[in-house]
Write a structure and sequence with these properties.
Bound molecules: adenosine-5'-triphosphate
Strand order of the largest sheet: 11-10-14-15-9-16
Strand content: 15-25%
Number of helices: 27
Structural class: alpha/beta
Number of strands: 29
Largest sheet: 6 strands, parallel
Radius of gyration: 31 Å
């Protein structure tokens, strides 16, 4: 039996320390984020000290007073992690000379600096500050240059003041740098006037941080700015749960809860009045509703929903001219030539795709969605249509191109996303150049992506949406595929027959059992490891962790799979003993243990090592890697401080400052696995995950496995997942909008 890893020790309170010194040189500085690694000369030590942190404009020669923590870096040894800093004037002749000549002040290089300091000595900085005109006394400095030096000096002063102000109000250096870069000289005024503006303007600052800054600045808890920001924040949180709007009563209740602090509880009536006010100002869209009286949208949600419905309306309003007998003829010849027979449902789907503007093809695993899609693509090709295939994620697009035997793109690429403008180049004025568009994994389309896609579809094109509505809904807001089906306004074919070949797989048959509320048929790992759907009944989480280790080290290799390449652990959650965070540490130790030949670096609370499987956690348009992309670390350059990750098609390099974009991915959440498939999937399910367990979560996790699925956990948890039907229960009105719009068509 393998031993269990120790749980992490409770963290001791950090010991903040202070340092003063002169920046000797910059090892690394990111203009963008302010992340800096620099060497500092102090009077306490003969050796230079490495300091790491965020700095707005750091230059060699600056004298800094630093607050921070010492930490031990595995490669570089002791480093001082800076939490706060302030710049002080250099006090020695050499210090002043270095400071002035560092390039900090445009117009003054090292030679000029030496000349100025030779003339004014220790008073140099005071003279620049108060009697700058006296610089003419220095040989070789013309009047014009003095003006330039004066402007540069003022700018530096402004930066210093802003940083000092922000830091003295509890803003960390990282955020202070971002705030300065966003507002420049207007930073202090903006933050003092309405710190909640930060939550709108600056990525990474949310309502909670802005609220903390506001409190520090003494802004009243009943300030209207605070209430308004709180309302927007609650709607934003609702969107994270998939909602497009909130009914008034629910919104008011949540806002009151969110804005209540020790000595202050907002009045519900005041919030309701403010909602109406924001509705009149069109900060929010307010709409009457049958059940809820009033509902509130953020404007972008409202317009996307409304426009998506009207785009579909316009598309559906144009009938397709089709010679049906010719199509039937083609189908007969094609199936005969290929030696295949379409089921009645599949035949219907192909005919519909030929004759309808928009068709939805849905069904569970093994029902022939792919088979059918391939036939439709062949038919469209035969009809001479230009075709494009797309999927919401990179991995799903790759799989689609493999099965359809033609290129498939991500929807972002199809719509030519431009990171400079953060907009799609393909839109209503610049349609996609195709007459037939297939979108696979359509259950992953959220409101905004669906809206952008529909906008770019030419009016004479046909659209086929393929997806499985029993999978988890999209990560983003809305419930598009289900809403389109529920509206009954768009032709839908549901494939229900599971083909013989697929029916032999327990993964497929269990997926269908789960979907109909039946407990899956599972073989015990120890009794019959030959089934493709196994169960390891480790009753408690710690046994589950132990069991997963044994599966990875013994059972799975014995079955002929390579744990490093084939196995993916999919968890309901990140937290907990059987959550992704903990399991990743355990699995890393087994699959990619430390070795002298593999460089590694600590990133936050994890270690990243050459050979690790990692997942990209945000969309990074500069590097062209997207949330959910999986890759492998191929190099860590300790000198250049860079980490290289090989993704499916691209090799991407990260500065250390950006390492928070990636994390270990030996275990990922089921939500992140949507649209991907793996040869072997291990699914731990425990009562710890009670809140998350649901039928479509289990269904989605299980159907990610192509050759082997192993459920780990007590039967009680599996049973609960099968029973717990969480109707996505998302607030959306897409279906109703479609019904209303299409009802007025004739
Ligand atoms: N009309 C048919 N005749 C014979 N075999 C078929 C037919 N339709 C589908 N199949 C076979 O059934 C199996 C499942 O089909 P397919 O892969 O298309 O299903 P799917 O719905 O795309 O499944 P998944 O969602 O798991 O990818 C495949 O082996 C496929 O070749």
């Amino acid at each position: 039996m393998s031993t269990l890893p120790q749980t992490p020790q409770a963290q001791a309170t950090p010991q903040y320390e202070y340092l003063t010194g002169v920046v000797e040189r910059l090892t690394f500085h990111s203009e963008e984020s302010g992340y800096t690694v620099a060497r500092l000369k102090t009077s306490q030590s003969r050796d230079l000290i490495t300091i790491v942190g965020s700095f707005a404009n750091i230059q060699a020669g600056q004298t800094l007073q630093l607050t921070g923590l010492w930490r031990e870096h595995p490669q570089y040894g002791a480093q001082f992690q800076v939490t706060h800093y302030r710049e002080t004037k250099p006090a020695t002749i050499t210090g002043i000379e270095k400071y002035l000549g560092s390039g900090l002040i445009k117009g003054v290089g090292p030679v000029t600096a030496r000349r100025i300091v030779a003339h004014f000595g220790l008073q140099t900085l005071d003279i620049i500050e108060t009697q700058i005109e006296r610089l003419v006394e220095v040989p070789g400095i013309a009047k014009k240059r003095i003006k330039m030096i004066q402007t540069a000096w003022e700018t530096q002063k402004a930066i210093k003041e802003v940083m000092l102000f922000l830091q003295s109000h509890g803003v960390s250096t990282t955020f202070a740098v971002k705030i300065y870069k966003q507002y420049n000289d207007a930073a202090i005024a903006t933050v003092t006037n309405n710190p909640y503006q930060l939550a709108t303007d600056i990525y990474g600052i949310g309502f909670i941080t802005a609220d903390a800054i506001a409190r520090n600045l003494g802004i009243a808890p009943d300030s209207e700015y605070r209430y308004r920001a709180g309302i927007v924040h609650v709607l934003g949180e609702a969107a994270e749960d998939g909602h497009c709007f909130l009914p008034q009563a629910e919104l008011v209740e949540q806002v009151v809860k969110r804005l209540s602090i020790k000595d202050h509880q907002p009045n519900s009536r005041a919030i309701a009045q403010l909602l109406v006010q924001m509705g009149m100002e069109e900060q929010l869209i307010m709409q009457g509703h049958r059940e809820h009286e009033f509902i509130y949208y953020q404007p972008s949600f409202y317009y996307s929903e409304q426009n998506l419905a009207s785009q579909l309306h316009h598309l559906l309003a144009r009938p397709v001219a089709v010679d049906l007998p010719r199509v039937l003829n083609w189908i007969e010849r094609f199936t005969q030539a290929k030696g295949i027979e379409l089921s009645a449902q599949q035949q219907q789907a192909v005919e519909m795709a030929a004759s309808q503007r928009v068709t939805i093809l849905t069904g569970g695993p093994g029902t022939g969605k792919t088979f059918c899609t391939r036939t439709i693509v062949a038919l469209w090709k035969a009809m001479g249509k230009s075709i494009v295939l797309a999927s919401p994620t990179g991995r799903a697009a790759q799989r689609l191109s493999e099965v359809a035997l033609m290129e498939a793109k991500t929807i972002h690429r199809l719509l030519e996303f431009d990171p400079k403008t953060m907009k799609f180049k393909r839109d209503a004025d610049n349609h996609i150049e195709a007459r037939a568009i297939v979108v696979d994994e359509a259950s992953m389309l959220d409101l905004f992506l669906a809206h952008s896609l529909l906008k770019a579809i030419p009016p004479d094109a046909q659209l086929l949406l393929v997806g499985d509505i029993d999978q988890l809904p999209s990560v983003g807001p809305g419930n598009v595929l289900r809403d389109l089906i529920a509206s009954e306004q768009i032709p839908v074919v549901r494939l229900t027959q599971v083909f013989r070949q697929a029916a032999q797989s327990y993964i497929v048959s269990n997926a269908h059992r789960i979907n109909s509320g039946q407990y899956p048929l599972l073989e015990s790992v120890s009794l019959n490891p030959n089934s493709d759907c196994l169960w390891l009944g480790a009753p408690e989480p710690q046994y589950g962790v132990q069991g997963i280790q044994e599966l990875v080290t013994d059972v799975i290799p014995q079955l002929g799979f390579d744990p490093a390449r084939d196995v993916q652990v999919l968890c309901p959650m990140t937290r907990g003993e059987v959550g992704t965070r903990h399991l990743n540490g355990v699995l890393q130790g087994l699959i990619n243990p430390p070795s002298a030949s593999k460089a590694e670096i600590k990133s936050g609370s994890i270690v990243l090592r050459v050979g690790d499987r990692v997942i990209q956690q945000v969309n990074d348009y500069d590097r062209e890697v997207f949330n959910g992309d999986l890759g492998t670390i191929t190099a860590i350059d300790l000198e250049e401080q860079e980490v290289t990750v090989q993704y499916q098609e691209r090799r991407v390099t990260y500065d250390y400052a950006d390492l928070n974009e990636i994390t270990l991915a030996f275990a990922t959440t089921i939500h992140k696995s949507q649209g991907s498939e793996y040869r072997v999937v291990i699914l731990p399910l425990y009562m710890q995950h009670y809140m998350m367990l649901s039928r479509n979560l289990l269904y989605t996790g299980l159907t990610r496995a192509k050759q082997l699925a192993i459920l780990v956990g007590p039967s009680k948890a599996i049973g609960l997942a099968v029973r717990q039907v969480k109707d996505a229960g998302r607030y959306t009105l897409l279906a109703q909008r479609l019904i209303t719009q299409l009802a007025t068509r004739f």
